[in-house]
Design goal:
It is a single chain. The chain is built from 6 helices and 4 strands; from the N terminus they run E-H-H-E-H-H-H-E-E-H. It is mainly alpha-helical and 142 residues long. The radius of gyration is 14 Å and the shape is globular.
Amino acid sequence: MYVLWLDEHACTDPRRAGGKAANLSRLAASFRIPPGFCLTTEAFDRALACGMIPSTTVRESGAEWALAIRETALSSDLVAAYRRLCARVERESAATAVRSSGVDEDGSATSFAGQYETYLNITGADAIAAAVVRCWTSATSA
């Protein structure tokens, strides 16, 4: 499973969802927040193992790696999650925020808010996939 929804209990585990998503998930249990999902740390590990995440600088568009995402099960999970998000907000397409939620961010003793890239108003599964890869690779950028 590569996708966790913020309103699922499993998303409260920062080892699977990262710090930001886990904290948002905890908020969702008590407060009304917009629907959303995160890709799991397993998704990141899979992308890394498949060579989808470059170890150095990111190319401008991230499109080359977004194409690679399409070749894996990660693609079907991401596309299905985006379609479900659109259905939940009752729109044909939904603008999303793609941001990091690393396991080393927002811990109990530290916070790295804004450490990695954030992309706003991203629509469409392909654009989200490209932004995800750019966000992941920002962990290794200057």
